């Protein structure tokens, strides 16, 4: 009895110590006291609960869960449900936490709060939204602002990942967290400018809130603002301001924030900006996406996007095996997703294995008919790249849900025209028109109104047939168009033109429906039109100008004078009485009287006299030049003819031989002479 009394007294003292340490927040010391109590009574339920709480407060979640699982008989689910679920949640065992919460016999407020967090992590946003609404409606305590923040985060996630238009919850954006979540919801809707304003407001509120605490430094404020700045950079990237976005991303990385999720997202976004350029920087950024704990910080779609970009980066860096490995892993995780198979096909194309790439895409299209349209479009693109346009057309025509689309019809007609397969092009038009006829008949219960798209296709078909000489085939289309709009003169003119080659009588009958020239004439003031500012041609009026007009014309002439044509210069020895040589403009060798140059006449004189001399002074005698026969004029003889002489100047006469020109003799430098340098 004395031992029991002593033990009870010791336990009472230890419990006092536990209570005091708990109030002071010293859970490490409280844990020591709890362990001493458990040495006295190992199955004390209260002591075991206190031990679990102390371990949780110290961050030892795994050890706390071990204590719970070891003492299941004592710590039943009714007693310790919240602590067990919380430990599982913090250890990222989300599914287990959900089961623990759902198996609890009584749903306390604490369990409901944790239930909302678990649903958010499981991305069950609809259930999560309902849970938080219920909590806000039925709770009145100091945590109401936090619950509203969580509620706005759920709405933002729905808008971003599920493309759900968020409803107005009427939340007052008094904190920077609420402003930030509202901005994220706007980004999901594509309202980027509004989202940027919200983020700027969130930044301002954050600075005001943190600056009130004297212990918070500027570095702490910048670290808290990192996530807001990251979202701003993302908006810049979406707006095409990649340089500004890249600069802001790098500023955030330099701050070295502790949030591995934020760093992973920023690194991934930088990789998407780099694309196939600056791959060395991208390979460094990939390391940030592989940090420990990233998978628990991001949503499934974010993680998937990061893995896709890793595969693309491997392709850009010519790591073919790595690219195939990553894309195969992604395909096994999401068999119905398009991107993994498209990445594999792109890698095969880089390796010049186009046939294998087409086969891979065809297999995927057969296995997943729901996604076959996009895959077949890619297959057609590959066929066009190989030059197989006809095969590409066959693939495109196999996409039933796109056959009638104007864009598809236009592409097929263009490709068939390129291949000069006019019959197939007309068949494409016919099938599309028939589809619209059947569709509209089913929608209007037998009535036959034509939609704008339907009429546009008929008109394009008619124009195409007329362009390629198929006027007989174009007649039915033109008649259909004219029937829908009898006032369409352009269609009627086309119809008459087509009938003129097939049935002239029918063309005459139809021509009666053309409007008369009186109804088509336009009341236009021709003079006003010609004198308008934009007129490029002004008709000249016949007849003499009146006095006023003459003065006006003279006045205009003073402003802008006509350029006078200059008279050609005549030679100084020009004689108007002498008829000019009609062949004077032809080269001498092409003239009819050219006899060629005589050779060897001065052979005996070469080498006589000074160096380079070929003529003597007597040969330059003017008298000898004047009396010399006209068949062989001397070089330079034209220069000695007097202006008063009766001799016909050389420019006007018909010389019998070719005039020779005497070149000036170049004086060579004396040997040994020095240059001027």
From TrEMBL:
InterPro entries from the UniProt entry: Signal_recog_part_SRP72_RNA-bd, SRP72, SRP72_TPR-like, TPR-like_helical_dom_sf, TPR_rpt
Alphabetical keyword list: Coiled coil, Cytoplasm, Endoplasmic reticulum, Repeat, Ribonucleoprotein, Signal recognition particle, TPR repeat
Location relative to the cell: Cytoplasm; Endoplasmic reticulum
Cellular-component GO terms for this entry: endoplasmic reticulum; signal recognition particle, endoplasmic reticulum targeting
A GO term, aspect molecular function: 7S RNA binding
Coiled coil: 94-149
Pfam entry (one): SRP72
Feature: compositional bias, Basic and acidic residues: 572-593
Ranges where the Signal recognition particle SRP72 subunit RNA-binding domain occurs: 540-596
Each TPR repeat, start to end: 226-259
Signal peptide boundaries: none
Superkingdom classification of source: Eukaryota
Annotated Basic residues bias: 560-570, 661-677
Family stated for the protein in its record: Belongs to the SRP72 family.
Name used for this protein in its record: Signal recognition particle subunit SRP72
Species whose genome carries this gene: Zosterops hypoxanthus
Gene name of this polypeptide: Srp72
